[in-house]
Amino acid sequence: MDKTVKIRAYTDPASGQPASKQKEQDLELAARDAQLADERNKSLEQLKTIVQLREALKQEQVKTAEVSKRVNELESGLQQVTSSSASDLARKDARIEAEMKRAVDAENKCKQLQEQLKQEQDKQANTPDQSRMLEAKERELTDLKARVKEMTGALNKIVNIAEIAKLTDES
Questions:
Q1: Dist. CA 149–CA 151, nearest whole Å
Q2: Which pTM value belongs to this model?
Q3: Residue 106 near residue 144 (C-beta atoms within 8 A)
Q4: Which residues make Cβ contacts (< 8 Å) with residue 18, sequence separation at least 6?
Q5: Quick one: 144 exposed, middle or buried, by C-beta within 10 A (0-12, 13-18, 19+)?
Q6: What does the alpha-carbon distance between residue 10 and residue 22 come to, in Å, rounded to a whole number?
Q7: Each residue's pLDDT tens digit in the chain (171 positions)?
Q8: Which CA distances in Å does 124 have to 121, 136, 140, 141?
Q9: Residues with Cβ < 8 Å from 17, sequence gap 6 or more?
Q10: Is the Cβ–Cβ distance between 151 and 102 less than 8 Å?
């Protein structure tokens, strides 16, 4: 910046100082004024920079808060999905276990009935009256075998559904 400095051309009779001393003081005063103006300009620029940095910091803090909030929301959603998936899987596993127990029980009962049928057949060979009983047992065995086949089919469907659910949960 260019500044105009006013310097007196003559000695002030009231001050009693010679003109050269007065010029030196005026020059020194002008230099100090220029230096003060420079420092003032630098301070203003630094103040503007500080204000801009504060604004940038506030914007970054707002962005960080928003990102943090979104991360918390996503974590919460993930926990809910995980807990619901785990409970669904546990429920399905319990159903499969129950169906498997029923199938095993039905199979055991079928084996028992087959054993009884064999015993009845042995008895029937000895006595003709037992032929009617044997026919009834055979019908019962046939019915039980049909039920076992139905339960086995249902169990297979449940196992397939559980496998699909596991594959879906894993992906």
A1: 5
A2: 0.37
A3: yes
A4: 11
A5: middle
A6: 9
A7: 567 766 655 555 555 555 678 888 888 899 999 999 999 999 999 999 999 999 999 999 999 999 999 999 999 988 888 888 888 888 888 888 888 898 888 889 888 988 988 888 777 676 666 677 778 888 988 988 888 888 888 888 888 888 888 888 776
A8: 5, 12, 17, 16
A9: 11
A10: yes
Distance CA 168, CA 155 (A): 20
Torsion of CA 68, 73, 75, 79, to 10 degrees: 160
Please give the Cα distance from 35 to 14 (Å, whole number).
Answer: 29
For residues 139 and 122, the answer to whether their CB atoms sit within 8 Å is no
User: What is the spatial distance between Cα 24 and Cα 7, in angstroms, rounded to a whole number?
Assistant: 9
User: Tokens 């009884």 sit at which residue?
Assistant: 116
The residue type of 7 is: I
CA distance 95 to 102: 11
- Rounded Cα distance, 110 and 150, in Å: 13
Place of tokens 């169990």: 155
**What is the chain's length?**
171
